[in-house]
Amino acid sequence: MCVGIPMKLTEIRGDVGLVEEAGVSREIGLALLEGPRVGDYVIVHAGYAIQLLNPEEAKETLNLLRQAGILPADPAGEGDDRPGDRGRGPGAGP
Amino acid sequence: MKYLDEFRDPTLVPALRDQIKALASGLPPTTLMEVCGTHTMAIARYGIRELLPHGVRLVSGPGCPVCVTPTDYVDHALALAELPGTVIATFGDMVRVPGSRGTLAAAQGAGARVRVVFSSLDALREAQAHPELQVVFLGIGFETTTPTVAATLRAARDAGTANFSVLCAHKTVPPALEFLASSGKARLDALLCPPHVSAIIGTRPYQSLADRGIPCVVAGFEPLDILLSIRMLLQQRAEKHARVENEYSRVVTVEGNRRARTLVDEMFEPCDASWRGFGVLPGSGLRLREEYASFDAARRFPVEIPPAREPAGCRCGEILMGLINPSDCPLFGATCTPEDPVGACMVSSEGTCAAHYRYGARP
What is the ipTM of this complex? Predict the structure, then answer.
């Protein structure tokens, strides 16, 4: 029920907007957002945009995930995962 | 789909899995709980449990608002459905939840007007299109959904729509978390915090759990989000430093959505609420304020509701506390199936039992 998918805001008509993703276009309520702009990605739930998606934060999380993909585990908590530490510790990837 | 597909990249899974395994090997057995129906489904659909080492157990808590709605609410809706000229508008999951004497779907079959909607706004439009009918919307949901209903109520008020009302059973999540953490009943070593509830309430409400030594991570829905969040929780355990972290920072902020919360606060006030499996949790529910009484279906249409009858043998309550797995319930897969459900945990598209049944998840 909490499912909400990121969709791109393509049109704003007062308290109502049009969102689109993967070829699907829908009308949704905008009353819960402050100052949304066309081009923003919003999270759509139960017919309303409930929050904005922050593309910078999305990039950061992806970077974190990709770092996780190349760095070995650090279970002793000796340090933060840092690029350039490849080869340190067991199970270091290629 | 943008901002979804990237977080499903399977090539990144093995490293996360291995890191989780390495962290877990240095820890005592850990029980992680999620409290979001969409997490329940995603975990089952993507086989997340199969990726976890045996020392890490993932249980589902009360994350499905349909599942925690008690039987007498369905009975109330059924009683309203019998009133002449009344349309019950509801999210789809509710129509097959068994009340004491049947479901809304069965009532529809017997002639009652029941309409499935994806949004309370659709229900309002139905009312506006049919001024001769009374439209009652079943207001179920946690903090993600309640603001949408509040926005619809404001639109109804502004438009002067008199034939629209809400039967309110909205609830709030933090009181349930407090109950779980303090009751000593549920094993809760760490918490995967609900993503879209958090988009509304922010991250501060979880601090009281971290203060009790329970690691908290707000986790997105996609498999990589969930795996990364599990890794972060185990890392906190390893460091013996419980705090609130936010993996889903692309949507969730510390502040949450203040505008949404203000709107809810304008129309609703806290009240005690009954949760299936938990009993009454003080201050965990919402009811319409006196100024909005005309939109409250319970106040507007008093009906007689006979005492509720719980289905015999149903163990939804224990499932919702994360105490047992679906396969521990004698009805699971036997007399309780998605086609013929006994309890709400099997009916709801995000119910724990429905997830286990559908995806054959390892308990």
Answer: 0.93
